[in-house]
Amino acid sequence: MLNFLSLRRSLHYFRHRRLQISPTAAISKPPLNSPRPFCTVSPSPSSSFDSELRKYLGYGALVIFCGAATYYSFPFPENAKHKKAQIFRYAPLPEDLHTVSNWSGTHEVLTRVFHQPEDLEQLEQVVKQANEKKARVRPVGSGLSPNGIGLSRLGMVNMALMDKVLEVDKEKKRVRVQAGIRVQQLVDGIKEYGLTLQNFASIREQQIGGIIQVGAHGTGAKLPPIDEQVIAMKLVTPAKGTIEISNDKDPELFFLARCGLGGLGVVAEVTLQCVERQELVEHTYISNMKDIKKNHKKLLADNKHVKYLYIPYTDAIVVVTCNPISKWRGPPKFKPKYTSEEAIQHVRDLYVESLKKYSASEERDINEFSFTELRDKLLALDPLNKEHVMKVNQAEAEFWRKSEGYKVGWSDEILGFDCGGQQWVSETCFPAGTLAKPNMKDIEYIEELKQLIEKENIPAPAPLEQRWTGRSKSPMSPASSTAEDDIFSWVGIIMYLPTSDARQRKEITEEFFHYRHLTQTLLWDKFSAFEHWAKIEVPKDKDELAALQARLRKRFPVDESNKARRALDPNKILSNNKLEKLFSSLDMV
């Protein structure tokens, strides 16, 4: 269209020029002092007009040719050829295209293949057909893994519709469940039998199949990670169909598959060893590093559950212990010094003050916000300003000081923890001696981490969370060990993503990975620390990836795992890019 308009203007211009040229002007001589033209023969107006016409006709022909070539190279489907093109309209996403992201919104894929079988037979058909077509169906759970370990744009299978309690053995305290059941559903389903799980992670929304596959854990130096509660499994595999494994049936594969990262088979059913449902007393109080060093060994030995929450740029350490109610003494009699409203008021005051400072406004009543919501709101105002983050941390320390006290409740109610909003998190696991003789490396790790934060001026929010577990017999668990009395410490660093602003989230992400890189460089090798499987991120740099692969080989039986994967899933339909990069075969490395 533009070429056509230009052509019309050119024709009009030259017609006009021809009418203006008089016969006298056409033959008039130039002045004697005028410069000599480059070419002594002047073209006639008619030849210039013809040349210009040919040029624009050529442009028009080129446009027509390109349009025809595009049309026949990318034809419309037969049923769409009758439709007229509509300019400036965006095509909607196809109805069969699913957007799947993890909870923190840090990893996302678009896929056309998202299976949700309702029973074992449907699951077997999904896996069988995918294997025949060599089509990927990566197992994905509730999407709570910070690194999106279950995601694959080529296809996924989700077990959410297979969520039943199948069998309860009250005498042996065992339950058999479908793998898609969520932790809270399971706990609610077996409480009438007086049973519960031995330990819990911070939240309750994970599917059982997912929480065991990534080596998730609770806290308590006497308690192992959650995969140790598994005593039997039913896997649907691409090459060997449905198999049942346990300590008695193929124990080598059983222990490997308990923390198999979804790569050895789709977990269909799980048999768990449970414990009697108990009421616990939770004690929360503020301590400091001097007292922690003095009492650490006793705290690990005397408490069923214990964790420390360190608040960067302060001396405050929040200690949380949980133990069964004493049959003789009963629950503690304690009157809190402050009400919950008084405890949170300091955080509200800081938020009001910060809104004025940053010329911001808040539509909702701030009294409606929980503590973690207020923390997110505060951090969103200036998340990478160290001075601002320090003020938020100090307000958090004050909140915990005024929240000291006791709480009584069932274990599934007490052991949870409000982790806050969307976030980046890195959690490492490393040996901490034995229960009888803790080596204090766990405390040394934290001291060096806090020094690193302050030296590098990292805008690190709270908390630095530290928990402990016993060992796991699953060789792919970060807490795996052959020594029964070994204990392991788990330390998490965090940066929240309290905003939906893409630019701000990008800046926070870059700062977090700088933070993580510093801890990796200065602490991981020194303390033999390895990241949680649900939080490990694959490096983009080839040299860094090769170093990570070599490091994983020193800690985990990668070759044995790859061998089992080749036997059970030769076409790699259960894999994804993350697994392939982390566990490359030896010849690729």
TrEMBL record:
Record SUPFAM superfamilies: FAD-binding/transporter-associated domain-like
Ranges that cross the membrane: none
Cellular component GO terms, alphabetical: membrane
UniProt keyword annotations, A-Z: Oxidoreductase
Gene Ontology MF annotations: D-arabinono-1,4-lactone oxidase activity; FAD binding; galactonolactone dehydrogenase activity
Known cofactor(s): FAD
Entries under PROSITE patterns matching the protein: FAD_PCMH
EC number, as in UniProt: 1.3.2.3
Signal peptide: none
Pathway where this protein functions: Cofactor biosynthesis; L-ascorbate biosynthesis
Pfam families reported for this sequence: ALO (PF04030), FAD_binding_4 (PF01565)
A GO biological-process term: L-ascorbic acid biosynthetic process
Domain of life (superkingdom): Eukaryota
EC category name: oxidoreductase
Domain FAD-binding PCMH-type: 106-277
Protein name: L-galactono-1,4-lactone dehydrogenase
